[in-house]
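I am writing to request your help with a piece of structural work I have in hand. What I wish to show you is a protein chain and, alongside it, a tokenised description of its three-dimensional fold. Could you please explain, in whatever detail you think fit, how the structure tokens follow from the sequence? You will find the record immediately after this paragraph.
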Amino acid sequence: LVLQPLDAIAEARSYLEPVFSAELDQQTAVSLHRNIGPGSLIRLASDARLNPEAQELVQKIFAATNQWLESPERHKQLIAQLGSPDAEQRRVAMVELQRAGSAAVPSLLAALRTPPRSVSGEQIFAALVNIGEKAEQPLLAALAGPEPFLQSAAIQAMGRIGLTGSRLSLIRPLYTGQPAVQRQASQALSM
């Protein structure tokens, strides 16, 4: 990448050929994404002198990174990390869950049912609130589902996030849900 702006493309290719032809595992691809950065990877892919190999490599890196970001196993690890005694580890977990966005919401809702030992429900709700509006669609799906516990958790999260666009979705459980779900819907609507 350093040689690219210097028009040393032949030399850049000689350094990149082993990378182009290598089979990248997910961990290596994610590491490349983190260390090189998306902007530099996009510049690499857009240089016609290094294509089509550069485009294929960058597509592999982005695909592996997206798959890793959306991995439920990764979300479970991050949720457990929310209970770390180390404040920096808790901060990193919160940032990474926010970065995962809507993909992390099902894991967070599941963790509310059976939280890891050192993680409180409040920490899990804080992560949901931190995700913000990106959490709306999975929360609406949980609200529409058959499980009262998940309905109640989704309503609490929507109320805490302040998803005003979802207020209409709270009317039905207000009248048809189980008592605990009705209370949650009533409280969320009064916020």
The first helix runs from residue 9 to 21. The CA atoms of residues 70 and 103 lie 5 Å apart. The two ends are 51 Å apart (CA to CA).
